[in-house]
């Protein structure tokens, strides 16, 4: 008998995610996938899955799942209370589950997104090579709702033989490393240093597309619109309001606002755990000189 | 053309002449410099994503600036003919704004030969260049909350076919039954960048 997962409750918002569908931006499809990729990978490793198996991503916990057959699960990402069949378990650990058992995630105490992996992977039908739900592009499986049943797959690796993966707690005031963005010249000369020396607060407008931030204005030196150009996760796009938006997993494939700086890929997992109201800072990556961004050109040069 | 840094895993090539975007795209696609993992064309730019373990910005920028983009025509693909019924709700308004009859709008739209320049906004939403300048009009002042899939529309210098029902601010001049996007088809997008397109009623 193939194992199944009944979704009893979803909490605020829950989706199926894997590592996404890279390489399709030219046809208008973004990478999508887990917002905190490191936590998805870890959850998979803890249950003996290949790292790219599909698992569940939920916001602030609150997810309740019932399993039809004995299996192993793991919960990673934002730490939250976990019970299986009424017994308490910890995050970042393989958890044995019996047939009919309910896995209940409580409210996450810090961070934003929790990941639940099940041995064998969540086996919904892939779309364009991935089981990720792209909430903006509307590609992939539907957003989870109570009453849904999810098939469990058979794609496994050996059990890892660990009881617990130690994970650092999210910093009270995370510092995200950035490099200079392609349109830094669209801003007044002091804008980049304002970005690097100020505290920004995540507004309530936080989803898989991005984090809208509030802080001192990053003023533009020129008006006008930028024709649409491709974006990447981590891009800090600045609309005319001067308040930046940090792009996450489901960001638009192309955007029309200038990008002042780009958060390092390695820090995007932390960015995906920033909750509304949290303060963050940005720091320039060593060796990337903001005053003289690497810049190459060909074509007419000014006469000497 | 300039090569601008875009984080530690991408470079953005910025063009003065937008017609060079597809040329460089085709050249880099046929013979990618070491470490290139993805190319994303847009209106005036080409994003080049790379593997930082295999190359770095300066090296890639050098390789890109060495490329000739002279004389690159649209990819040698069969021309796609999109059948259209020109009965869009904005046709009369477009005709009035362009100072011509609705029949003349249709004729000019049909006479054009288009090239898919880039995709964005939604999966499979292709911005097609080649629109008659007499039909270059701004978007609607207030976007519609729902535009039906298959709507044929114009905005600025572009024309497009809405691949899915979605909100949208373009001016709707017709509709097609041709599914330009189908995830179960390989490739899912009929109008990938570089494709030549004609509309026929």
Written description of the protein model:
The complex is a heterodimer of chains A (304) and B (201). Chain A has 304 residues and is mainly beta. Chain A folds into 2 domains: 4-151, no CATH class; 175-296, Cyclophilin-like (Cyclophilin), CATH 2.40.100. Chain A has 3 helices and 21 strands. Chain A has helices at residues 37-46, 191-197, 268-271, and strands spanning 4-9, 14-17, 55-59, 64-67, 71-77, 82-84, 87-89, 95-97, 102-105, 113-118, 149-151, 175-180, 200-206, 210-214, 229-230, 235-237, 245-247, 254-255, 259-263, 279-284, 296-297. A 7-stranded mixed barrel of chain A has the order 12-19-16-17-14-13-20. Chain A has a 6-stranded antiparallel beta sheet with strand order 7-6-9-4-1-11, with no helix packed on it. The radius of gyration of chain A is 21 Å and the shape is elongated. Chain A starts with a strand and ends in a 7-residue tail after the last strand. With 201 residues, chain B is α+β, with helices and mostly antiparallel strands. Chain B contains 4 helices and 13 strands. Chain B has helices at 20-30, 57-65, 91-98, 102-111; strands spanning 2-5, 10-14, 36-41, 45-50, 80-83, 114-119, 126-129, 144-147, 151-155, 158-161, 166-168, 171-175, 196-200. A 4-stranded antiparallel beta sheet of chain B has the order 1-2-4-3, with helices on one face. In chain B, strand 3 and strand 4 form a beta hairpin. In chain B, helix 3 (91-98) packs across helix 4 (102-111). Chain B starts with a strand and ends with a strand. The model of chain B has no long low-confidence stretch (mean pLDDT 92). Strand 21 of chain A pairs antiparallel with strand 1 of chain B, so a sheet runs across the interface.
């Amino acid at each position: 008998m193939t194992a199944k997962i009944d979704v009893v409750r979803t909490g605020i918002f829950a989706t199926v995610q894997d590592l996404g569908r890279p390489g399709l931006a030219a046809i208008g499809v973004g990478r999508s996938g887990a917002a905190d990729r490191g936590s998805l990978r870890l959850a998979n490793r803890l249950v003996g899955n290949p790292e790219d198996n599909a698992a569940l991503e939920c916001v602030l916990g609150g997810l309740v799942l019932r399993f039809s057959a004995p299996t192993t699960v793991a919960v990673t990402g934002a730490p939250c209370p976990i019970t299986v069949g009424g017994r308490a378990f910890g995050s970042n650990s393989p958890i044995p589950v019996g047939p009919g058992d309910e896995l209940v995630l409580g409210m996450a105490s810090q961070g934003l997104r929790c990941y639940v992996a099940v041995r064998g992977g969540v086996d919904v039908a892939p779309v364009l090579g991935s089981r990720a739900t792209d909430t903006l592009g509307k590609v992939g499986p539907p957003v989870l709702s109570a009453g849904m049943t999810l098939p469990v797959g058979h794609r496994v690796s050996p059990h890892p033989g660990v009881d617990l993966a130690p994970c650092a707690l999210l910093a009270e005031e995370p510092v995200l490393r950035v490099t200079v963005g392609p349109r830094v010249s669209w801003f007044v000369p002091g804008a980049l240093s304002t970005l690097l020396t100020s505290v920004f607060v995540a507004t309530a407008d936080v989803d898989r597309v991005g984090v809208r931030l509030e802080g001192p204005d990053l003023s533009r030196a020129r008006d006008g619109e930028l024709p649409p150009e491709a974006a990447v996760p981590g891009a800090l796009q600045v609309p005319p309001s001067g308040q930046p938006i940090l792009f996450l997993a489901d960001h638009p494939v192309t955007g029309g606002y200038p990008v002042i700086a780009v958060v390092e890929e390695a820090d995007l997992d932390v960015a995906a755990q920033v909750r509304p109201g949290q303060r963050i800072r940005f720091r320039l990556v060593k060796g990337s000189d903001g005053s003289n961004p690497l810049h190459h050109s060909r074509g007419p040069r000014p006469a000497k | 053309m300039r090569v601008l840094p875009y984080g530690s895993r991408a470079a953005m090539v910025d063009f003065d002449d937008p017609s060079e975007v597809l040329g460089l795209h085709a050249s880099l696609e046929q013979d990618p410099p070491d470490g290139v993992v993805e190319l994303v064309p847009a209106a005036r730019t080409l994003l080049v994503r790379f593997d930082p373990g295999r190359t770095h910005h300066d090296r890639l920028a050098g390789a890109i600036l060495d490329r000739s983009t002279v004389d690159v025509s649209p990819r040698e693909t069969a021309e796609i003919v999109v059948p259209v019924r020109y009965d869009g709700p904005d046709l009369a308004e477009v005709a009035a704004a362009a100072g011509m009859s609705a029949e003349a709008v249709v004729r000019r739209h049909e006479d054009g030969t288009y090239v898919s320049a880039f995709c964005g906004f939604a999966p499979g939403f292709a911005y097609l260049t080649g629109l008659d300048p007499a039909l270059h009009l701004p978007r609607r002042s207030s976007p519609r909350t729902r535009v039906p899939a298959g709507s044929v529309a114009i905005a600025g210098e572009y024309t497009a076919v809405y691949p899915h029902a979605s909100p949208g601010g373009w001016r709707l001049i017709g509709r097609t039954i041709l599914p330009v996007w189908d995830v179960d088809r390989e490739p899912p997008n009929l109008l990938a960048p570089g494709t030549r397109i004609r509309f026929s009623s």
